[in-house]
Amino acid sequence: MADPRFFKNAGPFSLGEIAKITGAVLRPETDLNIMVEDVATLESAGPKDVSFLDNNKYVGAFENSAAGVCIVKSRYADQAPRGMLLLLSAEPYKAYARLAQAYYPQLTSGFEVAKAAHVHPSASLGANCAVGAGAVIEAGAVAGDQCSIGANAVVGQNCVLGDDVRLGAGATVKCSLIGNRVTIHAGARVGEDGFGFAPDPTGHIKIPQLGRVVIGDGVEIGANSTIDRGSSGDTVIGEGCWIDNLVQIAHNVKLGRGCILAAMAGVSGSTKLGDFVVVGGQAGITGHLTIGDGVQIAGQSGVMRNVDAGAIVGGSPAVPIRQYHKQTALLGQLAEEKGRRRQ
After folding, report:
1. Contact assessment for residue 213 and residue 196, using Cβ atoms and an 8 Å cutoff
2. What CATH number has the domain spanning 171-322?
3. The pTM is what?
4. How do residues 328-342 score in pLDDT, each as one tens digit?
5. Homologous superfamily of 13-103 in CATH?
């Protein structure tokens, strides 16, 4: 159960309502009026809670769970404990995500501008905006309806925020155009200088970074991540991208739609990622590359060449994933052989 000091439960919901929210299917004889109070893990759920199973590793926990209701794939139905009611779904994790959002909708702290906030007279705030104490909204900045600007956050001069943008505490936005339904978590830096200079033995010469950051609708940017503005053109984050904490995106990078970048990944300048690219944690992609649609990059990989659409790569330098696994296995065999020889 979520701690009620931090999260407000909007339940309970009836089984009929849950089926509608999740798109899951109940058995015909199920009473649709049974009320379910909360969502919970298989291990912690009780008779009035709903949980889910979407990973083979947790079948044992499912078989021993006290959950009153569970969202599962049909192939696990026969393994359910006696008395557990089942919601059958081809995608239980996605169904659970929708249900958890219903039980715990995102809340704002109220639609008000704190007295200790600093909003320039020429800045524009839409309807029902909240601005926290110490936040700064500079001259000419525009925020759409229902935006939430956290404490000590900064919206730079002439930046544009669409509707329902959430800027976490201490986050800063400069030289940026941001779409609707975008969340930028605490401490993130969007639109700072890119790492641009001309090397010179007497002292490196800074190249002015004259571009912007353009962020599409429905993007989420994790805490303390950085997205540098373009050097001349724009840095672009496509709609629906999800960027984890501590990710570095350099100047002039372009992400397509729906890309996912896990924590501590880095993308060097002017590289282009296609739609729905997945980058694992601590992976690095060098500059001026093209990564095709649907590419998957394993964690801690080092990508130094273009990658064709649909490829799965791993290792450093990154190679096709099967080749990477073969290399890893071969290195293990060589190490064992060398050890035997020493004996």
Report:
1. no
2. 2.160.10.10
3. 0.90
4. 899 888 877 776 777
5. MurE/MurF, N-terminal domain (3.40.1390.10)
